[in-house]
Amino acid sequence: MTLAAEAARFPTSGSPIAAADALSLLPPAVVEPLVGQAQLQAAMTLASTLPPIWRTCMLEVRLGGVSRQVDFMACVADVDRDRDAVAEALPQLPPAHLGSAQALLRAWAIRNAPAASAVPIVWLEWDMPYAKPALPLFSACLDVSLLDAGQAAPSRAVQAGIADWLLALVCDASTATRLGRGLATCLGALPPDARLLHVAPLHARGLDRLRFTLGLLPAELLTWLRVIEWPGDLTAVSAWVARLAPPWHRVFFQVEMDDRVHAHLSIETRVIATAAQAGDPWSVVLETFEHAGLVDPSLAIAVASWPGSSELVWGGATAKLARSCYLKLVLNGGVASEVKAYLGMARQ
Predict the structure, then answer these.
(1) Alpha-carbon distance 286 to 37, whole Å?
(2) Which of 168, 245, 276, 302 fits a 20 to 30 Å CA distance from 159?
(3) Which pLDDT belongs to residue 5?
(4) Domain ranges across the chain
(5) For residue 121, how many other CB atoms are within 10 A of its CB?
(6) DSSP annotation of 272
(7) Three-state secondary structure along 7-61?
(8) β-bridge mates for residue 313, sequence order
(9) Strands of 51-106, DSSP E
(10) Element (H or E) spanning 236, and its range?
(11) Per-residue pLDDT tens for 36-50?
């Protein structure tokens, strides 16, 4: 995945969107079988309580045909006066809908530290059934160039400092120190051209771990996993990476760690902003997952038909809704366990 493709998830034109508006504009053809009416209604109930401060809203759906869990995600971004809008909206948000993310959003909105100013994007993710405590999971972007291509990517030392600030804000001191030390070790083993993009503390899910997203070339990933002694089947990872991306294509990966690196590893496909066409690379990836028994054929068809941008009558005026999609393969120790689709919606 190129950084330009990743940046497509975060439109910088237009205006923020209300989460409920985004969900109400879901194409009917994908609600069943991809989302489900009950799942959509549950997400709408949550979304109706959230203020219109989001640059992109997203549904995370499982494509195996067994689990009907649909999680809801939304991001705020350092665009226009969006930080001010978040600061104004925070007092209206029920604390139960933010959990430990409240401290991060408050600091981010008012730029109460240099590190807060250096975070361009914050993602929040609510897991179904949207009523558990300590919600949501959140992910902070540590690379300003992801949102603004005119800015240079920060150094590893700068990113480590931002991560330390974030961990100190939301974790107890011993956990923050332990996770920060583990992240520093992993960053020190990265090749020069690798990119650290996001970090996500997982304590909202009851885990004292840190998940981070990296952009590397496939060969770089395998070398790095060896160096950090990733406890999984590298041959299996190599086989999957070869099926999903050419060797010259930077791909996004997610890894989890605490005192050590864990076996969980995720590989993300590139973002597309139009419906898939037969024979194109994205359709080939879907077919690869389907042939491996990881994607239900009917869900593959629904994902492939996810539309791109379109003009809609919205709030009494014509507006453009940008839609995007990418897939994530989850590996546990190298064994493929599931594929998820991320259906994005943003107002332009």
Answers:
(1) 24
(2) 245
(3) 43
(4) 3-347
(5) 25
(6) B
(7) HCCCCCCCCCECHHHHHHCCCHHHHHHHHCHHHHHHHHHHHCCCCCCECEEEEEE
(8) 318
(9) 56-62, 70-77
(10) helix 234-244
(11) 888 889 899 889 888
